[in-house]
Amino acid sequence: MTTEGQQLLPSIRAVCCAQRELEASVSGLLGLTRGSVRIATFHSVAAHWLPQIVQSFLSLYPNIEFDISCELEYSSSELKLIQGDVDCAFVTLPLNIHANPPLRTIFLKQDPIYVALPLNHPLATAPAYPVSRFAEDALIYIRETHDRDITTIFDCCNVHPNTRYFMEDSYAIASMVESGMGVGIINGLIASRMPYHIALVPMDPPQYRDIALAVRSQGTLSPVLSRFLEYVQSWVAEHVK
Question: What's this model's pTM, rounded to 2 decimal places?
């Protein structure tokens, strides 16, 4: 974008937001017979929650349109929401970006985090994997910008991991673990439908990530977005154990 375009960008975004608010007002007058929801999310939610959520929501409101963007980095989803490029975003808590005004978050689920081990690893059948052992085993690691939850674990436990490889997603890590190249860290959503022959062992101490849905704190939510937020909360409560 040129310098001139960057100067005009805030005004362009304001016009687009005003247009969407007008469309939302019209949708409110007509009921939930039309409207759209723009969502930013990260990979595990996009793969394991959103298809069922969107499909079941559309069975009730078939004329609603969805625009879904899947981001590699948590902060990208938050930034899209802050800038008004999406209406809501799946995030992990605490947020990575301190927005002004702050985003409003709706807690959804505490997702456990597991260690992925080769089946011949001495702790493959153990009840837990000590976090301190990451300093010994070769770690196959997702880059910090993609998954800050892992970095937080090491910082809190004062562990310096023996990182050997960097990968871009959990399935690539699981494949390398299956081949015996090291150990990895897998969140509960990915672990619930893992196609690889690996052992998934809880950490000691236990570790989790908090998944939430975020919206901008300013402005009025459209009827469609309000209904979708309520629906996501009820769906997670009913279907995610």
Answer: 0.83
